[in-house]
Amino acid sequence: MTLQEIGKNAKAAEPSLRILNTSLKDRVLQIAAENLVKRREELLKANEEDLKRARANGMAPGMIDRLALSEERIEGMAEGLKQIASLQDPIGEVLSMKQRPNGLLIGKKRVPLGVVGIIYESRPNVTADAFGLCFKTGNAVILKGGSDAISSNIAIAKILRASLKEAGVTEDAIQLIEDTSRETAAAFMKLNEYVDVLIPRGGAGLIKAVVNNSTIPVIETGTGNCHIYVDETADLTMAVNIIFNAKTQRISVCNACESLVVHEKILDELLPLLKKKLQEKQVELRGDEAVCKISSDVIPATEEDWGKEYLDYILSIRTVSSLDEAIEHINRYNTGHSEAIITENYDHAQRFLNEIDAAAVYVNASTRFTDGFEFGFGAEIGISTQKLHARGPMGLEALTSTKYIIYGNGQVRP
Amino acid sequence: MTLQEIGKNAKAAEPSLRILNTSLKDRVLQIAAENLVKRREELLKANEEDLKRARANGMAPGMIDRLALSEERIEGMAEGLKQIASLQDPIGEVLSMKQRPNGLLIGKKRVPLGVVGIIYESRPNVTADAFGLCFKTGNAVILKGGSDAISSNIAIAKILRASLKEAGVTEDAIQLIEDTSRETAAAFMKLNEYVDVLIPRGGAGLIKAVVNNSTIPVIETGTGNCHIYVDETADLTMAVNIIFNAKTQRISVCNACESLVVHEKILDELLPLLKKKLQEKQVELRGDEAVCKISSDVIPATEEDWGKEYLDYILSIRTVSSLDEAIEHINRYNTGHSEAIITENYDHAQRFLNEIDAAAVYVNASTRFTDGFEFGFGAEIGISTQKLHARGPMGLEALTSTKYIIYGNGQVRP
Questions:
Q1: For A80-94, B34-48, B196-210, B390-404, which range has the lowest pLDDT when averaged over its residues?
Q2: Are the Cβ atoms of A412 and B197 closer than 8 angstroms?
Q3: Cβ contact, residue pair A19, B363, below 8 Å
Q4: Cα–Cα distance between A112 and B69 in angstroms, integer?
Q5: Are the C-beta atoms of B80 and B159 separated by less than 8 Å?
Q6: Are A345 and B80 in contact (CB under 8 A)?
Q7: Strands A284-287 and A257-263
């Protein structure tokens, strides 16, 4: 099938998906969850093909783990779909409705985006997950996964399409682009005629390629160079606790803390406490001059360190002499993700919340909470680090648009 | 000044603009309004340079009219700024705040987008207007106007910058790119490092160029191929009234009606009434076979007519045998702008509102109401025909983003 045909199919599916009622959508998700588990042998077999190819190509063990399915992981995919079924359907909500002086009643109603394109890398579970989120919000989805997982993705998409058919819903609610070439990916990014929005899910390289090449509007999910600022008035026990959590609870995620900013007045006192706690996980520290002066075993940080997302047991530490300097440093080096202040000072807390430019700004809490589930959305498509359309953790609402509905009785414009 | 320098200046201005209080912002807008009127001689002189060049280049009279300033138009610009000053400031509004089970208080707060880029054509008043809207919403704006109006734009920007300075606010809240070459425009569209969003204001060609070439997120404001569907149960007097208004009240605008869809059962009765009324403005009709059969003086419509935004005294007419066919036709040919049904049938009204995919869908009213002022927003940046971020008339809120503010007391993620 050509990209043009896939686009046309999605557009043709859109009108019926737009008006599907919630109970039918939820039924499809339930059926799909059951079918994934029921047909797990088929999935595991397809996945084995991918794994064989990966091993033959010498893929790193970490990558192979991301690619691998298991009975447990298949059950996890199914659970994910059931959970999406249990969420409230955002479609149809009227966000506001006002009567104008001329009698027109103007309402703003939540509607699907239309056709959503998703470009992702090697995790095959994204196939089911992305379908679930897009389908619940009345969108047709076109998926373009990585070549590594193509056999698994084809098998998953086949089961999802069969489940749609079983419930009497158009199978083209999900389409997978089976051609994993770069040329096709590039052409997909310019399919404006059929695709309303493109969401890349994966590493920084993939996201950058999509942002630079797509002519379709993109929702950028991004990297996190997250900071914690320890104010001069901080409760140091709380600070150490939060830093330890934000740095080490899970190092490979975008909301992990990568850099510490410390007020010079408390550096002497904080550093030994912090080093002791972080040694539990052998965290490497890279500090500025003031830090290295106190503690000779800290590695001197370079300019590059301030902008780096380590995704590792490494933490940079910068000393500042004021809140202003802290805010300036963070606004300069952050990636617009999650930033925290530890303070007991009311005014500093408020200023930090107001003046830091990021998707999520915390007082006295770990940056690790920036997450759709932790925020109570029940689902997450990704964490947007751009400012348009959606910012921060994106739940189902990020996959919706609005339209104005206007009730008149003959009004004309004077 | 290079584009890089302009970008850096805007980014440097951003933090102070983000936290400007409303009364100071409104004062700047008042001062700017006064200064524009006070320094009108300077503006008229600069405008005369543009006009001279335009006449020498043989610019069409309609275009020259768009380019020309007058005392009255300068007062209009000033009034526009005063009106923006009188609007409620959307920045700082907390849209929701919820306590999570772990005690975290998570709020969603309205914040500026940051740096807004605007690319526009020959109307110099856009310079003041775009500044006013962006400044009120705490954004730094970088403007790139057309070469035709460059002298006028430089003069207006100079007065706006002087007004900012007079109030003690950073002048870089507005910067004008004085180099009007295509190369600079192309480079501006890739200034992702400094610009958060790009809004093209102008004709279809300009918008398409920006959508295709920008790597910065774009808010697409677009063309309107707006339909009115006259249902079999329509009140025909109301229908004729609304069609006359939507077609002829102002022909050059995107919310004017371009195409009529008529149920076959009432075609016989409607057509003579409609022709009589539309003859008042010499509207040319282009109809399908059924229409031409009844009325031999109607020009046969071609396939091209159904997709055409005439912006002229021309109206196409298509006959359908059902509401389904009407919805299908409109969803196929519309541009996602404004669509209306004239009906007395409750169910048809509801189905039309639900199933038509457009920014604004009307029952028994003229499509001409799709407008920020008519919708009660008090201002308008444009009418978005895309589905991301903003759809339909865009008021001040379309120039804002949100951020999450989180109040904790030591929470860490388990």
A1: B196-210
A2: no
A3: no
A4: 43
A5: no
A6: no
A7: unpaired
Contact B78, B67 (CB under 8 A): no
- What whole-number distance in Å separates Cα of residue B140 and Cα of residue A391? 19
What token pair was written down for A228? 């914690």
Residue entry with tokens 């507005």: B174
Residue A284, strand partner residues: A314
Size of interface A-B (CB pairs under 8 A): 203
Q: B391–A403: do the CB atoms touch at under 8 Å?
A: yes
Structure tokens at B339: 């669509």
Sheet of B400-411, strand order: A299-300, A284-287, A314-320, A257-263, A226-230, A338-342, A360-365, B400-411, B105-112, B94-99
Predicted TM-score (pTM) of the model is: 0.91
DSSP secondary structure of B39-57: THHHHHHHHHHHHHHHHHT
Q: Report the alpha-carbon distance of residue B79 to residue B195 in Å, rounded.
A: 28
φ/ψ region of A315 (left if φ > 0, alpha if ψ in -120 to 50, else beta) reads beta
Amino acid letter, A321: S
Q: Shortest Cα distance from A324 to chain B (angstroms)? A: 11
ipTM of the complex: 0.92
Nearest to B391 among A242, A327, A401 (CB): A401
Q: What DSSP designation does B103 have?
A: S
Inter-chain touch B365–A410, beta carbons under 8 Å: yes
Q: Evaluate if residue B359 carries a pLDDT over 80.
A: yes
Q: A192: helix, coil or strand? A: coil
Is A304 buried (19+), middle (13-18) or exposed (0-12) by CB count in 10 A? exposed
Measured CA to CA, the distance from residue B412 to residue B414 in angstroms comes to: 6
Of the listed ranges A80-84, B109-113, B217-221, the one predicted with least confidence: B217-221
State the Cα–Cα distance between residues A219 and B110, nearest whole angstrom: 19
DSSP per-residue letters across A344-410: S-HHHHHHHHHH--SSEEEEEE-GGG-STTTTT-S--SEEE-SSSS--EEE-GGGGEEEEEEEEEEE
Residue of chain A whose alpha carbon sits nearest to that of B331: A15
Looking at the partner chain, which of A235, A353, A406 has a beta carbon nearest the beta carbon of B363? Answer: A406
Which one of B196, B220, B357 has the shortest CB-CB distance to A387? B196
What's residue A122's pLDDT? Answer: 73
User: How confident is the model over B230-251, as pLDDT tens digits?
Assistant: 999 999 999 999 999 999 999 9
Using CA atoms, how far apart are residues A350 and A367, in angstroms rounded to an integer? 17
Across the interface, whether the CB atoms of A406 and B19 are under 8 A apart is answered: no
Q: Give the separation between CA B247 and CA B225, rounded to whole angstroms.
A: 11
Residue B68, sorted as left (phi over 0), alpha (psi -120 to 50) or beta, turns out to be beta
- Torsion of Cα atoms, B282 then B283 then B286 then B288, to 10°: -110
Question: What is the rounded CA–CA span in Å between residue B251 and residue B243?
Answer: 12
Nearest CA in chain B to A239: B410
Residue B86 identity (one-letter amino acid): S
Distances (CA, A) of B63 to B59, B60, B126: 7, 5, 15
